[in-house]
Amino acid sequence: MIIDKQLEDKVRSLCERLNISSVFDFVSINNPSNNLPYHNWYHALCMVEKCVEGGNYHNLPYHSLRHLAVAALFHDFAHSGGKEEDLVNISLAKMSLQRLADQSVDATISPGIDVREVKEIIAVTEYPYVLDPICIEQKIIRDADLMQAFRPTWKEMIIDGLREEMIIKLNKNLTEKDMLEGQVAFLKKVHPCSAWGKYVMFDCGQLDIAILNITGLI
Questions:
Q1: Cβ proximity of 28 and 34 under 8 Å
Q2: Is the backbone of residue 112 left (phi > 0), alpha (psi -120 to 50) or beta?
Q3: What average pLDDT does this structure show over 69-97?
Q4: CA of 134: how far to CAs of 111, 137, 194, in Å?
């Protein structure tokens, strides 16, 4: 798993400002999937950073940013790493959040967090997609979940890490070439949901850059 201390410190600081440090600490210590090849702690950190960026782009109020960041931290909690369908993964994430909320006599889930709303945000990350994002928080998290391909670590995370999990899920071998070609085909079909997503992917050219980077290795 990629260890990025600078990113972790940045996200910890973001969570402190949103008064959800206890949630950050809980997931960092207790998430059984933190060390998976792809759906791991590093991915969760990336998601929080991008979700807050998207939330700020849309001038979301404080309580909405908090809900979005908690959803980003929890969206892959207890992920199976390819052993189960994503419906199961999403259900486990939502159940884990609810269980934490029910047992939080120490206020691990900070006051003011609407767990039902956070679970609805998490639900739209199920893939293949089964729910259309409705509110802006749902649109932002859907877009953020696509942006792992835009980071300098894209090859280690997607071509290596995600491929390792997909081999388990599909129960067949996938070569690096298979994964590269599959990612190009996937990214060419991407349609951002939020104005922020369109700005990052189209106006800033991140989607075309990612496709070119991947194509260059085929």
A1: yes
A2: left
A3: 97
A4: 25, 8, 10
Structural domains present in the chain? 5-215 (1.10.1300.10)
H-helix or E-strand spanning residue 121: helix 115-123
Q: How far apart are CA 179 and CA 215, in angstroms?
A: 11
Lowest-pLDDT range of 97-106, 118-127, 175-184: 97-106
Q: How many Å apart are CA 30 and CA 191, to the nearest integer?
A: 34
pTM of the model: 0.96
Q: Who's near 20: CB < 8 A, 6+ residues apart?
A: 66, 69, 70, 73, 110, 113
191: tokens are: 């349609």
Task: Please tell me the distance from the alpha carbon of residue 139 to that of residue 201, in angstroms, as a whole number.
Answer: 14
The answer to whether the CB of 214 falls within 8 A of the CB of 190 is no
> Where does the pLDDT of residue 1 fall: very low under 50, low under 70, confident under 90, or very high at 90 and above?
confident
CB of 122 closer than 8 Å to CB of 75? yes
